[in-house]
Amino acid sequence: xxxxxxxxxxxxxxxxxxxxxxxxxxxxxxxxxxxxxxxxxxxxxxxxxxxxxxxxxxxxxxxxxxxxxxxxxxxxxxxxxxxxxxxxxxxxxxxxxxxxxxxxxxxxxxxxxxxxxxxxxxxxxxxxxxxxxxxxxxxxxxxxxxxxxxxxxxxxxxxxxxxxxxxxxxxxxxxxxxxxxxxxxxxxxxxxxxxxxxxxxxx
Length: 203
Fold this sequence. Notes:
The chain is of the alpha/beta class and 203 residues long. Helix content is 46%, strand content 15%. It has helices at residues 3-20, 31-35, 41-61, 78-81, 85-95, 112-118, 158-163, 165-169, 181-196, and strands at residues 23-30, 66-73, 128-133, 136-140, 144-145, 175-176. A 4-stranded mixed sheet has the order 1-2-3-4, with helices on both faces. A two-stranded antiparallel ribbon has the order 5-6. Helix 1 packs parallel to helix 3.
């Protein structure tokens, strides 16, 4: 389903959920949307868009008791059956010569349990991305390295980016796991307040 179609299909149901003060929405995204896959550019782009829709709709829905999550699955759907045998063979070979052992888990029924749970009253999680691959279920988290801070008084140059690119990519000091765009800016602001000696740096 295309992103625009997903939004318009969801919108009427979302309004009903708002009025009743309760709801569960589970988008079917894909591992291809989060991690990429050869020969699936259009598909991966659409599925990645669903992750953005999940993020934003989850924040809007919280105050109405609406929880929104997405499942990033790998399964043998009709779409996968349309891919060339060469593509499939190359994918299997790249993973492992014995990757065929996972063949039973390609059935969509191996993905169904996490979808059912996320859509249930028992679920209390929202804004989550959940991998369902090979019978393993795991949470996928967007993470931000601590990065490199350029000058505050002027824009950084491309040469400075090149010089510090290893610092930008480095995970030596761990990751931040921001909840939203405001949360992502909090450590940046804290660091800048320290640099400028602001009295509110410790607030």
